[in-house]
Amino acid sequence: MATRRRWMVEVLLLGLLATAPGGAVRADAGADNAPVFEPLLSDRLRVEVVDWFRPLPGRAPSGAQRYSFYGNQFRFGGKANLGVLAVVLEGQYTQLLGLPDNASLAAPEGNLGPGAVYFAHTHRRNQGEVFLKRGFLSVGNWKELPQAGAQLGRFEYSDGLETVPKDARLAWLKRVRVAERLVGPFGYTHVTRSFDGVRMAWDESRWNLTAFAARPTQGGFEISANRELAGTIVAGMAWTLKEQPELFPIDGRLFWLYYEDRRDRAVKVDNRPPAARVADRDDIALHTVGFHHIGVFPAGPGHADYLAWLAVQRGSWGELDHAAWGWSLEAGYQLPALPGGPWCRVGYTQTSGDGNPSDGQHETFFQLLPTARAYAQTPFFNLMNLEDLFVQLLVRPHERVHLRADGHWLRLNEAADLWYAGGGASNNTIFGFSGTPTGSHRELAYLVDLGIVFHLQSWLTAYTYYGHTFGQPVVGATFAGRQLDYGYVEVTARY
């Protein structure tokens, strides 16, 4: 029945968009100030296969950590350009089939992989809902008023992507290694998240100033994504120095983010005893300030690149004072003249952890509302209380094929803290981050992963990913099996 409803929705929307007045085939579409309608249609299907860390005997049915499930994300709508105004309306239908009903465990193991996280939100193996993904009014005519613009309504926001460089290498660095570390639409999940609020920008040839304030919606692993998160606010401002024509490609940004969480039904996850966390109903209110700077420059027969990112946090974590930090340094070198244009990179990220659960301070770096999987492709960790030393290889063996291989050495910054995972608040009762005891260890895991993108057509892309994790003593403190395998095959069509 759910499958039939999905196809009925798709056929109906395709028919409406094809016959809509002022559609994309209007004869006067190129005329100045003429209303132009642009359909927005995409469909993404994915089959995920999971073999998570194996729990201790008696903690779960045999084989509960091994399963597969199917997810589909169908987005439909359109954009109407009306001179100085533009209106965007986009709905989304998400369908999940075959979620595991025996892989959501009590602490300390918690949910055994992403399928178990989806199930834990609803306790339904098969799920599907339609909701408003984006719906906003955009003000700004980029011909007559090139400097000012604003959006009001429901939109997506990615911190770090306030501007996109023209240089392809710089744009990749910004999109993949800078953006959405702290705030993002969580596009990896089948549901994703949106933001209800306002975004304003002032754009010059050399710099951009963007500010926003919004309430995030439910979503991520929560299928009911039409509602806002009660009592949760995120706001920020970013000043970006854009690449300069007279210099080698560079991009820099200063940013400030504010996050407030007043959900009194969601128990905070930190290294305090459970009773203390349950009793703490005070708000989370955090300020994060920081910067990034990236650049690509010619060096010998190829191009070298670098990345620096830093963030410092201050505020309140319920009853505790909060003070935390995180930073990253990365470098790479590309040889475009060689077959495949190999690009090798290396980097190190460190974020603070809390070394004393009893001192009235919370010192674990907090990731706010990130797209966590962007920096943890096998999503058993995130950038909280972490040290991540990685090497990376990007190759393009064919103009339609892109290959990426990564290797990570993962350690925790503080053994007295927790092993964290998750991508932020998803509904009004689940905190959105998990924390697993470390057993007083720091060595978390070694991770190797491979992703391949196939550009089959201009409108059709296929992607396959596989990651294998060699768990270390932190994993062994909770799980009987230290090996983890995670992979999926995904096909995306954009019309």
Plain-language structure description:
It is a single chain. The protein has 495 residues and is mostly beta strands. Helix content is 9%, strand content 48%. It has 5 helices and 21 strands. The strands form 2 sheets. It has an 18-stranded antiparallel barrel. It has a two-stranded antiparallel ribbon with strand order 17-18. A hairpin with a 2-residue loop joins strand 2 and strand 3 (85-97). The model is unreliable at 1-31 (pLDDT under 50).
Output the keywords.
about 500 residues, mainly beta, globular, disordered N terminus
Concise synopsis of the structure shown:
The protein is mainly beta.
* Overall outline: globular
Mean of the pLDDT scores?
Answer: 91
Strand content: over 45%
Q: State the separation between the terminal residues, measured CA to CA.
A: 26 Å
| Poorly predicted segments | 1-31
**What structural class do helix, strand and pairing data support?**
mainly beta
Alpha carbon gyration radius: 23 Å
Largest sheet data: 18 strands, antiparallel, barrel
Number of E-state strands: 21
List the total number of helices. 5
The percent range for helix content is under 10%
- The secondary-structure element order is HEEEHEEHEEEEHEEEEEEEEEEEHE
